[in-house]
Amino acid sequence: MSETAAPLVEVTGLTKRYGDTLAVDGVDLTVLPGEVYGFLGPNGAGKTTALRILTGLIAPTSGTVRVLGGAPGQAQVLARTGSMIESPAFYPYLSGLDNLRLLAEYAEVPRARIHEVLALVDLTDRARDRFSTYSLGMKQRLGVAAALLKDPELVILDEPTNGLDPAGMRDMRRLIRELGADGRTVLLSSHLLGEVQQICDRVGIISQGKMVAEHNVEELRGQQELVIRAVPRESARSVLTEALGADTVHLYDDTLRVKVAPDRAAEVNRVLVEAGIAVSELRSTERALEDVFFELTTTHPEEKADVG
C-alpha cells in the first residue's frame, strides 16, 4: 500500500436522502491503492447506501465521488471494479459454472478466467452443482468469484461474511487477506469488529449516516490504557475523573479504563489508595477496536451495543 499514491476512491461530503430520512450524512472517505479498507458500522448505519453510490447503483443527493479517477457507473470505471452488494443473486437452477459463464459473456471476459476465479474461492469441486443447492457460504463465495471475473483493480464487498458459520467466516477472511496480499484494493463493509481488526489495513467508522473516524487500525486503537478493578467502582471513577479529567476515564463492563501512559500506573494507584479505595487489579493494555467503536458510536461509552 502506498500512502503517496492517488486514492482509488475519494468521497467528499457524500449525502443521500430518502424523503425525510438522511441515510448518509456528509461522509468523507478515501481508499488508497493496495489496501484492505474496512467500512465499519452497526446495521442501518448507511454502509450499504454508500457502497451502492460508489458502484453507480444509486445517485447521491449531494457531494463528490471519484472512483478510479472517474464517476461511479461509468463504463471505464465499472470495467476495473468488481463488487458484491447485499446478497449475491444468481439463477437458482443454473450451476455456479453456468452462472459465471453468463456473466463472463456479458462482460466479455475470457472463459478461462471462470476457472481461475472458481479456484480462488475454492468452488471448483461444486462448480457444476445448481446454485439452489449451495450453502449460504458457497453462495457468498460465488458472489466474490463473480466480483473477481474482470480481474478488477478495486473489489467492493458488502458484508461478505454476513450469515456465515464460523468456518465460512474464517474461509472468507482468508480469501480477503489473499486478495489484499495479491495487490488488489479491497473495500468491504462490516458490522463485525473482530473481522475488521483481523483483515483490514485501515478502517472508517460510520454511525447514523456520519463518518466518526477514519484511521489505520493501529492508530484507531491508539494509546495504551490502564485497566482498573476497584471498589467502590463509582467512587473510583469520581476520584480519577477529578484527578485526570472526564475524557480520560470510562466505565467498561465491570472495570475502569483510564487513557494514560502505563508509566503513570503508580500515580493512579496512589490516588485511589489515598482516597480509601481498594484496588484489586491494575494493568496496562492496548485498546481493542471494540472499545474504540463503542466510544465513538454510543452516547454513553459504558452502554455496550450488540454488533455481533
UniProtKB/TrEMBL annotation:
Keyword Calcium: no
Stretches assigned to the ABC transporter domain: 9-233
Record keywords: ATP-binding, Nucleotide-binding, Transport
InterPro entries with a match to the protein in the record: AAA+_ATPase, ABC_transporter-like_ATP-bd, ABC_transporter-like_CS, P-loop_NTPase
Molecular function as annotated in GO: ATP binding
Pfam families linked: ABC_tran
Family per similarity comment: Belongs to the ABC transporter superfamily.
Name of this chain's protein: ABC-2 type transport system ATP-binding protein
Organism: Kribbella orskensis
